[in-house]
Design a protein that fits this description.
disordered N terminus, mainly beta, single chain, about 425 residues, rod-shaped
Length: about 425
């Protein structure tokens, strides 16, 4: 495909070198000609140029972590002989009014945000965002000079809530926010989420996937985009990712004498530190009716319980259910009643309460010579069959429960209503 010179086209270039934890300040064209940032540049401009021999990159990346937020702003440039593939010297490079000094290997590398450059340089670098930047390249002769104006997109970062800095729940969608830039004519922003296998397997868990992975979204530059939970679950929970958003401009022009093609890039991006991916359970109420909470003896506590189900597909308890306490309701869940007993006779007896509705039963012992009622235990409110039977040799007695009495060596009361404290007696 033929490249049209003097073309200006806005595109997205995330500061991939920063996001991949490679030095943002050194790109050797001879060894990293096909580096991620240049590959992305040629891909997004639609050019079929296999190699970028000459380039000037103005890069402004905001690094946003849980500790702080700071900028890495700099200029990188290199010029290469397309025949010998060797770096060559040029006579000059300037950004606005600042002359950039070449290094001994003929590359250019200046950091506005480097501590050695000082606060004035940082202020100068920050002022580049959202402006037209004047770049001057002087080739191997003074007549081989090109001055180009390129637009440096605005800072992307909007507020501290714009980019996650600690953790993301992949069971939910993730909304990213940024400052739109209508002057970037391409009108899009590139979002990239990276999983670095080496660091995760070393720092987190050696069982995590051994292959790097990433998600890429090219979206309208309207200030907001939501990444679905399904997309986020491409990555495994309990791992770390880095998130970057970026946009930039690119211009290609020829030096007037040598006709060397120079690629000019101006990049604005924001990158997160390590963001932890979690997937806590998402418990939601089911349609199962409330139930009464019972203690270890099967007796109501007076509280009701609600059934919930974990609806987070990535959670370890997905599709499992649980019951949680939702409040006291002694009308729906009556508290158990106290059962007391007395036995004035010489032989011990047992009294058994069998709930006529549930079949549950409770048996208590009525010891001898207990003329005053003693506490035996508790049973739920309900209708009971109450059975008195000897715990030793039977004797003739009178058996009483809740106003009902019967004489003999034992007694069976088939329907006794127990709604409050009751006393079973043998006399």
């Amino acid at each position: 495909m033929k490249i049209k010179l003097f073309r200006v086209k806005c595109f997205i270039v995330v500061s991939m070198i920063c996001s991949l934890q490679i030095s943002c300040r050194k790109i050797d064209l001879r060894t990293e000609r096909d580096s991620a940032i240049l590959k992305m540049a040629t891909m997004l401009t639609g050019t079929d140029t296999p190699t970028v021999y000459n380039y000037v990159i103005i890069n402004g990346d905001q690094w946003n972590t849980y500790k702080d937020s700071n900028f890495r702003i700099g200029v990188d440039a290199a010029f290469t002989d397309s025949i010998t593939n060797q770096l060559i010297a040029v006579n000059g490079l300037s950004i606005n009014s600042r002359n950039i000094i070449a290094k001994p290997d003929h590359t250019f590398d200046f950091g506005y945000s480097d501590s050695a450059s000082g606060p004035a340089a940082l202020a100068e670098g920050l002022a580049l965002f959202g402006t037209n930047v004047r770049v001057k390249v002087t080739g191997t002769t003074t007549t081989d000079t090109l001055t180009q104006v390129i637009y440096m997109p605005k800072k992307i970062y909007k507020t501290p809530a714009s980019l996650p800095i600690a953790a993301v729940n992949i069971a939910n969608s993730l909304t990213l926010n940024w400052t739109p830039d209508p002057l970037c004519s391409w009108g899009n922003v590139l979002i990239k989420i990276w999983y670095n296998s080496a660091s995760n397997r070393y720092l987190v868990d050696s069982a995590l996937p051994a292959q790097d992975a990433n998600l890429t979204f090219v979206v309208p530059d309207n200030g907001s985009y939501t990444i679905s939970s399904t997309s986020l679950q491409t990555f495994q929970k309990k791992s770390f990712v880095n998130i970057s958003l970026g946009r930039g401009t690119e211009i290609q022009k020829l030096l007037p004498v040598s006709h060397k093609r120079v690629f000019f890039f101006a990049i604005s991006s924001v990158s997160s530190g390590n963001v932890y991916l979690s997937c806590p359970a998402n418990w939601q109420n089911t349609t199962t009716p409330l139930r009464c909470q019972v203690n270890g003896n099967g007796l109501n506590t007076g509280y009701q319980e609600q059934e919930q189900k974990d609806m987070a597909p990535c959670s370890a308890t997905y599709n499992q259910t649980r019951w949680i306490q939702v409040g006291m309701n002694t009308t729906a869940c009556p508290l158990p009643v106290n059962i007391s007993g007395s036995n004035t006779r010489t032989q011990p007896y047992n009294v058994k309460f069998t709930n006529n509705s549930t079949g549950a039963n409770w048996t208590f012992r009525l010891n001898t010579n207990t003329s005053l009622p003693v506490f035996l235990g508790q049973i739920p409110v309900g209708n009971y069959a109450v059975l008195f039977f000897p715990a030793g040799p039977p004797i003739t007695c009178t058996f009483s429960i809740n106003g009902q009495s019967m004489s003999g060596t034992g007694a069976n009361f088939p329907n006794v209503s127990i709604n409050s404290a009751a006393t079973a007696s043998v006399h």
